[in-house]
Amino acid sequence: ANMTMDEFAKATEKDGFQTIKVKKHKTYLKHGPAHVTLRSNIYGHLKIYVENLRPTFAKRDSSHVFLSSNGRQMTSGDVSKRIDNIWKSSGVYGENPPPKKNVTGNIIRKSMTTLVHESSEDNQAVADLLAHRLGTAEKIYRVKKMGQQARAGATAIENVTRRNQSTDKSAGASGSEPSTSSKGLENGNTKARDRS
């Protein structure tokens, strides 16, 4: 929600990823800018929004990338409401009622950490990408390696979610019900192995 047009314009590309460094976030003083790391094709979709859709409702003094339809900056609460609405309308729950707890960016972030911790060697890369706590002794070294770690973390999240989608499709083909929620998302269970 806090990404500015200036930060978007300064995105850097490496290894098929675009990284946008966002300064305004709650752990900035401890971890530095958040590395919003997107595959180049996803970044391309964001660029289409920035160049074609955003100008239709942006006010002259709007410096943020994500705006509501009235031209004001979206808050993190606005973004969370949109994520929950999209999630519910996607059909992911099938015939099941959605959980009582809303799906938010924070729940997705924590769930990705749990999934990767359960099935990957890239735990530290994901922790770095999601700005979780780091050991004090490693802090300076990790800050220097943040861009590389952000790309590795984004790849690990992409791999684990694709693997879970394949598992869900296989379960559906065998006649059993596919999972309608990932580990860590069901019933809002995000506390397991959460280090944030």
- The helix/strand order is HEEHEHHHHHH
Number of strands: 3
- Helix/strand-derived category reads mainly alpha
Largest sheet: 3 strands, antiparallel
Shape: globular
Per DSSP, the total helix count is 8
Gyration radius from CA atoms, angstroms: 18 Å
How are the strands ordered across the major sheet? 1-2-3
Mean pLDDT: 76
Strand content: 5-15%
- Helical amount among residues, as a percent range? 40-55%
Amino-to-carboxy terminus distance: 19 Å
Low-confidence stretches: 134-141, 175-196
Describe the structure.
This protein has 196 residues and is mainly α. It has a domain at 1-74. It contains 8 helices and 3 strands. The chain starts with a helix and ends in a 23-residue tail after the last helix. Residues 148-196 are annotated as: Disordered. One of its GO terms (molecular function) is DNA binding. This is Tyr recombinase domain-containing protein. Keywords: DNA recombination.
Question: Which characteristics define this entry?
Answer:
disordered C terminus, globular, 8% strand, 47% helix, 196 residues, Tyr recombinase domain-containing protein, 3-stranded antiparallel sheet, mainly alpha, DNA recombination
Q: What's the SSE blueprint?
A:
Layout: H1 5-9, E1 12-14, E2 17-22, H2 28-31, E3 34-39, H3 40-53, H4 76-89, H5 105-119, H6 123-129, H7 139-144, H8 146-173
Helix pairs in contact: 5-8, 6-8
